[in-house]
Amino acid sequence: MKPRLVTSVVEALSEPDPFAEPVDPDPSTVKSEIGAALLGMGVAIACALPPLLNVMTGPVGPFAGGYIAAKRSNPGVRGRAIIAFTVGTGLTAVLTAAAVAFVELTGPAELPYWFPSRGHLVILLIGSWLFGFVTARLGAAAAFSVSRGRFGHFVETYE
């Protein structure tokens, strides 16, 4: 196709931009984003539960959960934030329930010496929420970039 000379401003503005990103024909809804976020939370929790089997599954779990959730729902910025918030909150809720159950089953006087105090436990749980939020957000961003073809410069193709 030969380039042609544009003769007017109106003609130039009415032509489609060949470098523009395609418009997503199926934008995600809040309902699908929340469903995908719950799926991502389940993946992150499932990865965090068996840390004795594989030490890598716990730290990588929120990233994998965010990635899988974002690949499922094709979210925008709002959806990626919903996914990250849900994964971080779910992971922290499970850790909080485990800590409370441990304290209630053993009793405060029988806690082992290595168990953190109440103040330190709150700081650890806030840190776990931040870790879950940030890594799930990175996983969702990676899925978004892969789906848009932004990682293409890392892959060499031979023709």
Topology:
Blueprint (H helix, E strand, L loop, with lengths): L8 H6 L15 H19 L8 H17 L3 H30 L11 H30 L12
Shape: elongated
Output the helix-strand order: HHHHH
What is the rounded Rg?
23 Å
Low-confidence stretches: 152-159
Annotation field: number of helices: 5
Q: How does the major sheet shape up?
A: none
Mean pLDDT: 78
What is the number of strand segments? 0
Beta content comes to: under 5%
Distance N to C terminus: 23 Å
Structural class: mainly alpha
Helix percent band: 55-70%
Number of domains: 1
Describe the structure.
With 159 residues, this protein is an all-alpha fold. It is built from five helices and no strands. Helix 2 packs antiparallel against helix 3 (57-73) and helix 3 (57-73) packs antiparallel against helix 4. The radius of gyration is 23 Å and the shape is elongated. It has helices at residues 9-14, 30-48, 57-73, 77-106, 118-147. It has one domain (28-148).
